[in-house]
TrEMBL record:
MF terms (GO), sorted A to Z: bis(5'-nucleosyl)-tetraphosphatase (symmetrical) activity; phosphatase activity
Any one biological process term the GO annotation gives: RNA decapping
The protein's name: Serine/threonine protein phosphatase
GO terms under cellular component: cytoplasm
Gene3D superfamilies attached to this UniProt entry: 3.60.21.10
Residue intervals of the Calcineurin-like phosphoesterase domain: 1-204
InterPro entries for the chain: Ap4A_hydrolase (IPR050126), Calcineurin-like_PHP (IPR004843), Metallo-depent_PP-like (IPR029052)
Transmembrane stretches, start-end: none
Length: 246
């Protein structure tokens, strides 16, 4: 069983095209045109072309490409911002317009006036008018995780020793320390992003593929091969595959 996965995109459409190109090259080598491509969320914010990322992935799904798009915390904040939503996980003093979040960059792509001192209620009203409903629905309808054989794909991770059906949206989209610190096996190998690392890393029970595209790093694409003998994860490069080992 083969699957592909791409880490946090954060508005870098050029890097997304490169990741898809590497996947297509691997498809050509294997003759596999059907294996799904999991996009692990955080399509938007910080980068220069979040709108283009949404439009590209939406058009691909409509065209019938085997693309699965998961929802990340930034996708939720963007899609719900026009309705006055503030994610309860955000620490005090942060909101979607804060420079650390990067939401202003995305809103500006839609022609929304972000003049200093403008009331946030006015910005939200304009966002409701200018952000296409299909873009917001595309993100809000995206699943929070995807299981495929012995592998679980999710944006941030899972709450250890909690049943999958009992995981909360905050767990799946925001979790860090409790998930990262857990070293025992999970019921699945968990492929995730959310927390930038210098390069994709296999920890034995999980694989982090957020290589920091939001902050000038590359965008990671991997291929996951599951057989009766186990599961192997390979980084896709311009020259082929590189095995990731714990």
């Amino acid at each position: 069983m083969r699957s592909y996965a791409i880490g946090d995109i954060h508005g870098h459409l050029d890097l997304l095209h490169l990741a898809h190109k590497r996947i297509e090259a691997d498809r050509a080598r294997t003759g596999d045109a059907e294996a799904p491509v999991l996009h692990l969320g955080d399509l938007v914010d910080r980068g220069p072309n979040s709108r283009g990322v949404i439009e590209t992935l939406l058009a691909g799904q409509i065209a019938g490409k085997p693309w699965i798009v998961l929802r990340g915390n930034h996708d939720t904040m963007f899609a719900r911002f026009p309705d006055g939503y503030r994610d309860p996980v955000l620490r005090e003093g942060l909101d979607y317009l804060h420079q650390n979040i990067g939401g202003s960059t995305t809103l500006a792509e839609y022609g929304i006036d972000l003049s200093e001192g403008r009331p946030i209620a006015d910005i939200q009203t304009e966002a409701r008018e200018k952000i296409p409903n299909e873009h917001r629905s595309f993100l809000l309808d995206a699943p929070l995780y995807h299981r495929r054989g012995p592998v679980l794909y999710v944006h941030a991770g899972i709450r250890p020793e909690r049943a999958l059906q009992d995981q909360t949206e905050a767990d799946l989209c925001w979790i860090r320390k409790p998930f990262h610190d857990y070293t025992d096996p999970h019921p699945w190998l968990v492929i995730h992003g959310h927390t930038p690392v210098p390069e994709p890393r296999h920890y034995g029970n999980r694989v982090n593929i957020d290589s920091g595209a939001a902050f000038g790093g590359p965008l990671t694409a991997i291929v996951v091969e599951s057989t009766t003998h186990g599961t192997e994860v390979y980084l896709l490069t311009n020259t082929g595959r590189t095995l990731l080992t714990p």
